[in-house]
Write a structure and sequence with these properties.
Blueprint (H helix, E strand, L loop, with lengths): L1 H5 L2 H7 L1 H10 L5 H9 L6 E5 L7 H7 L3 E6 L2 H10 L4 E4 L13 E4 L8 H13 L6 E6 L4 E7 L2 E7 L2 H10 L2 E10 L5 E8 L1
Parallel strand pairs: 1-2, 1-4, 2-3, 4-5
Antiparallel strand pairs: 5-9, 6-7, 8-9
């Protein structure tokens, strides 16, 4: 059953694009603490790859406000349209992040509130995507569940899939792809209970 729901994430976000965007903007930015940490590790003019960028609010807008450039990737054409309207000078791409292969690297990579919708197999293979777009010193930040498992919640009456690897496996993947762990927080109460990984390319 979880495999079936995992395959519906792309359609889910396109179907609920306007609701997701409105809810994200209206519920308050309780995860700002980690995004402030992320941008503080980057320099003015840095290039940031935002995987699963949604409508660009508030994350991409915050990156741009700090003098950086964003390449945002999302599978939802409707959400990318919102990004283009809000931040027309940035780069926006309609694509599935699992198959992304851009011919350049970035100083920062985000996979925030998006990576955890992938099933365990795709989560593992995403590290190849991270590594393909990183160089020495690249800052990577993503969030996951606290322990290995899959869960199906709901959003506006539709099933919504999440999964997580075991923390030990994330550490192994980071090491395998030459990403040094800077910080890790499990179910951080200050950011809505998110489990966060912050790493740097070696």
């Amino acid at each position: 059953m979880n495999e079936r729901h995992a395959g519906k994430i792309v359609a889910h976000y396109e179907r609920h694009a306007s609701d997701w965007d409105a809810d994200r903007r209206s519920c308050g930015w309780n995860d700002k603490k980690w995004h402030d940490r992320f941008v503080a590790l980057l320099h003015n003019g840095a290039r940031v790859l935002d995987l699963g960028c949604g409508g660009g609010m508030p994350v991409a807008c915050n990156v741009v406000a700090h003098g950086m450039w964003v390449t945002g990737v999302d599978s939802s054409p409707s959400l990318i349209a919102l990004c283009r309207e809000r931040l027309p000078d940035q780069e926006w791409i309609v694509a599935d992040m699992r198959g992304l292969r851009l011919p350049r690297v970035f100083e920062g990579i985000l996979a925030w509130d998006s990576y955890f919708h992938l099933d365990p197999v795709d989560q593992r293979s995403m590290f190849e995507v991270f590594a393909a777009h990183a160089r020495q010193g690249t800052i990577l930040m993503f969030n996951t569940g606290p322990t290995f498992g899959e869960a199906v919640g709901s959003y506006r009456g539709d099933p919504l899939y999440h999964s997580s690897l075991d923390p030990s496996e994330y550490r192994q993947l980071l090491a395998r792809y030459d990403l040094e762990l800077i910080d890790h927080s499990i179910e951080d109460p200050q950011v809505g209970g998110r489990t966060v990984w912050l790493a740097r390319g070696r």
